[in-house]
Amino acid sequence: MLKSYLASPRYILGLFSWAMPFLFGLFSSQKLKAQGYQSVVVETETIDSNATIFSSGSLFLYEFSILRENKEYQLKGNRGMADSINFNLTYSSNSQKAAKNFMLILGKSVQAENTTATNQNVVVSIFPPFLNEEIATDAVENDGNVWMQPPFVGFFSALKLAPYPYVRLPVTVGDVWFDAAAIEAIWGHPNWLEWEGLLQLNYRYQVVEKEVIHSEFGDLSCDVIAATAMSNFGESSLIAHFSPRYGFVSMQYTLPNDWVVAFRLVKVLRDVDTTLENRNVTIKKLLQKK
């Protein structure tokens, strides 16, 4: 019976999946894309038409917190990317209530933006008060998977070291999958981690359970995704709650140097006018209510 199991396609596929990140590291780290994720299923034709989460005009408002050693920090002046980042983290004492931090994610039309060659949904991140600045945030949504690249701006460049939000469809509790990436040293920083050359990350994802969470949208049944990114320097992790209707409704990252970054979805608007002036009017009204 054991011999038949070891020879089964299920065992062989599982063994290959387990070994895949290490094979990447041994044979093709120099060929990995900067964001890796060779396993993500992408489309070439129906990128816009079958998107229900990242559809054009969808606006997601996330509240986020940054903690280290149980102390909450306020993020200000968050600008720049890679080796030109600039940000200011201010510690909020127990006697001071930390101001709310917000991030917005806006879905745009692939055809309107003329970026069909990327085979990805057009998604941008916006950080108040810099409403006129858009940070490209690649995303993929189709019948095979939902995957989202974090906004690597300012302090959030640290998220390069963590697993990206990613779920395979259809979702089954217990599913495990792997991937890998090689991260350039320009994304390093004294506040989290510095290295030379390429930093190899090996990702492991697992759907650990289904959980009903209480949210601004009522009780939501979510799939809980637990992911890790292993390197020579240790481990980063992500716990994400995924809703088929709203996407990733919460994301909690644990990063090098004991940083914890948590995002929580608090509002979703559909069919928003994505032109700069009109969308900014919508965003300002939305923020006034928070």
Primary descriptors:
290 residues; mainly beta; three-stranded antiparallel sheet; 4 helices; 44% strand; disordered N terminus
Strand content: 35-45%
Largest sheet: 12 strands, antiparallel
Number of strands: 15
Q: Rg, please?
A: 19 Å
Distance between the termini: 61 Å
Helix content: 10-25%
Oligomer: single chain
Describe this structure in words.
This protein is mainly beta and 290 residues long. The chain has one domain (2-288). Helices cover 14% and strands 44% of the residues. The protein is built from 4 helices and 15 strands. The protein has helices spanning 2-6, 9-27, 110-113, 276-288, and strands at 59-68, 71-79, 86-91, 101-108, 122-127, 130-136, 139-141, 145-148, 166-168, 176-184, 198-215, 218-231, 234-243, 247-255, 259-269. The strands form 2 sheets. Strands 1, 2, 3, 4, 5, 6, 10, 11, 12, 13, 14 and 15 form a 12-stranded antiparallel β-sheet that branches. The protein is globular. The chain starts with a helix and ends with a helix.
Question: Summarize this, please?
Answer:
14% of the residues lie in helices and 44% in strands. With 290 residues, the chain is mainly beta. The protein has one domain (2-288).
Helix-strand layout with pairing:
Blueprint: H1 2-6, H2 9-27, E1 59-68, E2 71-79, E3 86-91, E4 101-108, H3 110-113, E5 122-127, E6 130-136, E7 139-141, E8 145-148, E9 166-168, E10 176-184, E11 198-215, E12 218-231, E13 234-243, E14 247-255, E15 259-269, H4 276-288
Antiparallel strand pairs: 1-2, 1-4, 1-15, 2-3, 4-5, 5-6, 7-8, 8-9, 10-11, 11-12, 12-13, 13-14, 14-15
